[in-house]
User: Fold this.
Amino acid sequence: MLVNTKEILTKAQQEQYAVAAFNVYNLETAQAAIQASEREGTPVIIALGERYFPTVDVEGFSAMVKAMAEKAKIPVALHLDHAYEKESIIRAIRAGFTSVMYDGSKYNLEQNIHFTKEIVEIAHMAGVSVEAEIGSVARGAFSDEEEGDGTLTDPQSAKAFVAETNVDFLAAAIGTVHGMYKGEPKIDLALLERIREAVGIPLVLHGGSGTPEDVLEKAIKLGICKVNVNTEVSIAAVSYLEKYAENNQMAHLSTIMAEMQQAMEPVMTKFIRLLSKK
Assistant:
């Protein structure tokens, strides 16, 4: 069933677990995420980034995910990830996304509040929940995200931001990176605890890939309710394709895509199980 993302995260916050938000780009990645989650009996968030709009038909993609969600036995949310343009957010809302992320992290606090508040007003009128970001997540290896400056979230700024914007959930920058880490991860869990004390809404961790499992488990206990996962899934798919190409075998595209989907599902299952521990 297709549900509002806020519904999923409110329950996760109450019961102290987290839900995976898998970045997807096509049929196979969406199917892998939903099927892996169904086997584990957990909700799932299907996330499409604004950066994929040039290659993914947003309305067609939304219709596809909604059709799969209607048949699923678990709650499925459809989320717009890292959107910078109001037009993209309005397009996603009209297409039936159940949450959107407005990323105003490149602006100063006052500007971020101003722009985010406008997005929240638009989205809430349509019954769509909103994620926003204070601070900035840096880009690691194998990522296709925009470069962030790595500024960590200030708890008091987060408190003011949430009060002013009425945003539904907040991405906390605590030292994780988009992609894989270059060197030892330096993740500030003490900062996360202060952010949780400052705001009462569900918190989001961007950069789940490569983050040590014990760190993820501690972060969930400290208020993280949604973990974004992209790069590890991409690496699993591309690794499968590289190994296939090395064999120089000619196979039908349908077989290759089906096997690529199977290669992604174990990675997704790993995160689902880790995040849903109670």
About this structure: Residues 139-143 have pLDDT under 50 and may be disordered. The first strand starts at residue 19 and ends at 23. Residues 5-229+266-271 form a domain with the TIM Barrel fold (CATH 3.20.20.70). The chain has ten helices and ten strands.
